Amino acid sequence: MDQMSGSSKPHLKQDDKEKQISKKVEEYTSGIPSAAYFGLAVGSMILSASIAAFTRRKSAANFIGLWVPTLMLVGVYDKLVKLEARD
Question: Model-level pTM?
Answer without folding.
Answer: 0.67
